[in-house]
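Reminder to self: tokens first, then the designed residues, so the page reads top to bottom the way the pipeline ran.
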């Protein structure tokens, strides 16, 4: 067995049973409202660890699905004094180990050599997207995920009294009705995007920027579903309320409440952890591209 493989094999065994006291590697590991333990409780399997190269300029993006009790890992090389930056909008926990299996209490990398990032869900199952850099990480406006919604003819039942007037002299030109219709079209298209025929052209019709990239890139949402023989069935999803609309500047935003019923089918049938109904708030961001408004990104909102 080669030395590097032996190191990885021993590291995986020890990480799974690590009992050394340590604190969370990031104060923001997981998101507000989630409780991440000080150390991982699940064992990393060697087949769930991927070697990656993390950029010092720009960023490296990874995505996947976490099931209860299962972790994913990423190994990378770094130099002493570098700092790992990362961001995600998904509800996950993150721990960072040095090559000698020390669990770090922050993202400052003290030695030159290999490091391992272990990612797990605090509870249940979730699909996640993680952006990492060993340099400055550009803050993202919102997350990526195949999740919210779809429905034909989605229209808001209740317009927001807090919506900004489209007559504002600083208006972007996007109206509330146009933004609502764009979201409705997007929701209606998701049944064909996240299940066969996995229509990438529909993604291009309604999205751009980070949302488009995270759905269509190699290893992104569509690839994950296809590679895992999975699909989403979206039913009875709709905008139930427009909570706010800001059309000032070059990137307008709309906060909406969305009701959704969805089912994730996998090789073993229905994934109950990713299926069911929910009513949640989302913030959508828009940009104009070649004269057409598109969804730039979205994120869960309070």
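Designed residues (302 positions):
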């Amino acid at each position: 067995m080669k030395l590097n493989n032996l190191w990885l094999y021993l590291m995986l065994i020890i990480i799974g049973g690590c009992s050394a006291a340590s604190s969370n590697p990031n104060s923001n590991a997981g998101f507000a409202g989630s409780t991440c333990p000080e150390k991982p409780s699940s064992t990393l399997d060697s087949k769930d660890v991927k070697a990656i190269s993390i950029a010092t300029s720009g960023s490296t993006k990874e995505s996947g699905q976490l099931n209860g009790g299962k972790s994913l890992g990423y190994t990378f090389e770094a130099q002493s004094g570098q700092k790992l930056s990362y961001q995600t909008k998904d509800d996950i926990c993150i721990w960072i180990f040095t090559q000698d299996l020390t669990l770090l209490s922050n993202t400052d990398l003290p030695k030159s050599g290999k490091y391992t990032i272990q990612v797990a869900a605090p509870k249940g199952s979730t699909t996640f997207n993680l952006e990492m850099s060993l340099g400055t990480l550009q803050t993202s406006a919102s997350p990526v995920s195949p999740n919210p919604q779809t429905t034909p003819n989605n229209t808001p039942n209740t317009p927001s009294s807090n919506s900004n007037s489209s007559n504002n002299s600083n208006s972007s030109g996007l109206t509330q009705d146009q933004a609502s219709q764009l979201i409705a079209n997007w929701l209606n298209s998701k049944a064909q995007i996240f299940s066969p025929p996995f229509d990438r052209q529909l993604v291009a019709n309604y999205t751009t920027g980070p949302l488009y990239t995270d759905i269509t890139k190699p290893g992104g949402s569509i690839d994950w579903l296809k590679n895992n023989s999975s699909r989403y069935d979206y039913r009875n999803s709709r905008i139930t309320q427009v909570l706010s609309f800001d059309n000032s500047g070059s990137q307008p935003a709309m906060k909406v409440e969305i009701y959704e019923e969805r089912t994730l089918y996998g090789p073993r049938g229905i994934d109950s952890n990713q299926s069911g109904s929910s009513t949640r708030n989302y913030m959508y961001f828009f940009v104009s591209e070649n004269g057409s408004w598109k969804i730039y990104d979205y994120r869960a909102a309070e």
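Helices lie at 3-16, 176-193, 200-206, 209-216, 221-227.
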